[in-house]
Amino acid sequence: MSDSVSAQMMANAVRALSIDAVQKAKSGHPGMPMGMADIAVALWTRHLRHNPADPHWIGRDRFILSNGHGSMLQYSLLHLTGYDLSMDDIKNFRQMGSKTPGHPEVGVTPGVETTTGPLGQGIANAVGMALAEKMLAAEFNREGFPVIDNRTYVFLGDGCMMEGISHEVCSLAGVWGLNKLIAIYDDNGISIDGNVKGWFADDTRKRFEAYGWNVIGPVDGHDINAMDKAIAEAKAEEHRPTLIIAKTVIGFGSPNRAGTAKAHGEALGDEEIAATKAKLGWKYGPFEVPEAVYAAMDARPAGKAMEDAWNKMFADYAKAYPELASELKRRLAGDLPAGFDDVVFEALCNAQAAAESVATRKASQKALNALAPSLPELLGGSADLTGSNLTNWTGVERLTHDNMLGRHISYGVREFGMAGIQNGIALYGGFIPFSATFLTFSDYARNALRMASLMKLRSIFVFTHDSIGLGEDGPTHQSIEHVASLRLIPGFDVWRPADTVESIVAWDAALERRDGPSALIFSRQTVAFCEERDEVDADAIARGAYVAAEAPAGAGKAEVIIAATGSELPLAVEARKLLTAQNIQVRVVSVPCANVFDRQDAAYRESIFPAGTPLLAIEAGVTGLWYKYMHGNGDVIGIDTFGESAPAKVLWPHFGFTVENAVKKARALAGRKE
Q1: Taking all residues of the chain, what is their mean pLDDT, rounded to a whole number?
Q2: Contact criterion met (CB below 8 Å) for 445 and 421
Q3: Residues 6+ apart with CB under 8 A from 600
Q4: Crossing angle for the helix pair 7-25 and 31-46, nearest 10 degrees?
Q5: Region 405-425: what's the mean pLDDT?
Q6: % helix / strand / coil in the chain, to the nearest 5?
Q7: Cα–Cα distance between 410 and 201 in angstroms, integer?
Q8: How many whole angstroms from its chain centre is CA 172?
Q9: Distances 503 to 7, 386, 388, 594 between C-alpha atoms, Å
Q10: Residue 218 in contact with residue 227, Cβ under 8 Å?
Q11: Within 13 Å and on the Cβ side, how many CA atoms surround 504?
């Protein structure tokens, strides 16, 4: 840090850039960057390990802006410390195609570690990153070689604290003893509706102490030296995550808006900006920063030195432990182990030979037993439903505070927190994480699923008990709209396999996928194995839809197509048998993943659902998906109401899922009279 530039001047540079960018965009949130600038300078110039020239250096500390609406704070810091974020990028804040979008987005802005904005999810991601760091360190570090050794810092505000997900994940962070997680709480007492006293009266210190956290403060968030000391104290904690409570004034420096909700989410205006800069003693024009400030905040020289030292250590580590070093590099690169394709092929052959009729949740577990031993990076978990979701596998150990080598996490009843933590693990790297709950509870985790897709994460979500087949638990637990609603998330692949073979293919597709998340949907009830499939054609199954049983007269001769997913495929197969006996030519199509099928070329889609052939679709859920495949000529056996409390054997005929009903509808589509 240059002696000629004070820390306060650096903080004011952050404030000035932030308010100028918001003003130019006529949109944004200036209050938080103005209030947290001093805290940010204390962290970024005195503690944060990073190298702006290499934002992906594995040895870097992770910085998460959970209160992501204050994105200009992060963009100003990235620009001033030397990242590839120019002044033109700052001026293009919130504009089309900009590297400075309205909320931070991973993969768009260099130095941004996760996409934040939906409050509370940033702290959840941070918990996941801190857990991944601790787990990889336990697995790969050796004496004298701390190759995995970084802290995770997260800024969060009142809104994050109020969101329920913060309770879920911070509780777990305490259980796991994530001592390298340091959260700094911007305690400014203001939200959009005004002073939070009327709706947020938690004793935050006691709350986090009850979670098992180390709590520091309240600290004056505008005293840079005090914040420096608090962060140093947090870094010294060896057993617990730390929360630093920082008292700040939202919109600090604004003569007329500081400390008010008016500072939160709108541009200050030219007059107020002029008054603010005068009060702060900032004598420079819009988007003008003195070279001395750039020189003082440039983190590249120190960052290069830190990365060079880490590279030397890793080179020595690779000499001492070549196999460990090679495995760590593979894991961080996201490559699957050599020979994994052979493991999948053997599993498929065994499944086809066994031809077992089991619940698809059991088929999923069989897939895990076959694949997981070859995947040390596979990290599973369940929201207190392991015995129901069947997400554990033979020999897997549970992750605990004192066993960071465990590969199955008991998350407790915390669906949203589980998904947010999992996303953080996926962002950190080194693991392919999956987690599980009942399908109907995917609603609790919905926004984290959406964020996984927005960030294109290799994150896998397992959902079991997928329909009225659940039975007596009734409509509160019977999923009706859930599969369809998940399919609507852009880039989110939803697999609903029908048997052991399709379950292995679905798992393989999810594990192989690098550009987005997948959901694997499984049944509670037993589902008949598809005997009509003559051989394992994994490539066809992996295209999302395929011909499971062709019309006896051959391709192109079908009078009607019956398509089904998951547990309804056997119904389609049985209907085909009866219709064939009635001399009606029927093709059965299995659609394990409509999302993947929709990405196939037009010729393949047409070959599966030719325009001239009527289509009967069967799926135990809402019917809306299927009409796009019908070319105006088709029908659906589905459910557009909620379920009922009764045994499954009663519910299936009640809702029309019978062979007789399928035959009747198929005959009508084929133009055959009763």
Answers
A1: 97
A2: no
A3: 543, 544
A4: 140
A5: 98
A6: 45, 15, 40
A7: 31
A8: 17
A9: 57, 18, 17, 15
A10: no
A11: 24
Helix (H) or strand (E) holding 169: helix 164-176
- What φ, ψ does residue 268 adopt, rounded to 5°? -70, -30
pLDDT of residue 447: 98
What is the SS3 assignment for 101?
Answer: coil
Residue-wise DSSP of 501-542: HHHHHHHHHHHH--SS-EEEE--SSEE---TT--S--HHHHT
Query: Which residue out of 163, 377, 415, 568 is catalytically annotated?
Result: 415
Structure tokens at 529: 């194995």
Percent of the chain with pLDDT strictly greater than 90:
98
DSSP secondary structure, 229-280, as one string: HHHHHHHH-SSS-EEEEEE--TTTT-TTTTTSGGGTSS---HHHHHHHHHHH
C-beta separation of 41 from 10 below 8 A = yes
- Position 11 confidence tier, pLDDT thresholds 50, 70, 90: very high
Q: What angle do CA 135, 137, 141 make, to 5 degrees?
A: 145
φ, ψ dihedrals at 562, nearest 5° = -110, 120
Listed residue (55, 155, 68) closest to 104, CA to CA: 68
Nearest to 427, CA basis, from 406, 403, 455, 401:
455
CA gap 618, 652 in Å, rounded: 12
DSSP β-bridge partners for residue 186: 157, 246
The answer to whether residues 495 and 461 touch, using CB atoms and an 8 Å cutoff, is: no
Residue pointed to by tokens 């000035």: 16
Q: Are 365 and 393 contacting, i.e. CB atoms less than 8 angstroms apart?
A: yes
Give the pair of three-digit tokens for residue 574. 């049985």
Joined tokens for residue 202: 């938690």
User: CB neighbours (10 Å) of residue 558?
Assistant: 26
Residue 108, sorted as left (phi over 0), alpha (psi -120 to 50) or beta, turns out to be alpha
Cβ contacts of 511 within 8 Å, gap of 6 or more: 336, 371, 375, 378, 432, 460
237 has catalytic annotation: no
Answer yes or no: is pLDDT of 624 > 50.
yes
What beta strand segments (E) does 486-644 contain? 493-495, 518-521, 526-527, 546-549, 560-564, 586-590, 615-618, 634-637
Q: Which segments of 31-157 are extended strands (E)?
A: 62-65, 152-157
CA-to-CA distance for 35 and 274, rounded, in angstroms? 17
Q: How far apart are alpha carbons 172 and 166 in whole angstroms?
A: 10
Of all helices (H) and strands (E), which one includes residue 182? Answer: strand 181-187
Strands 242-247 and 181-187: parallel
Q: How far apart are CA 222 and CA 247, in angstroms?
A: 8
**Tens digit of pLDDT for each residue in 338-389?**
999 999 999 999 999 999 999 999 999 999 999 999 999 999 999 999 999 9
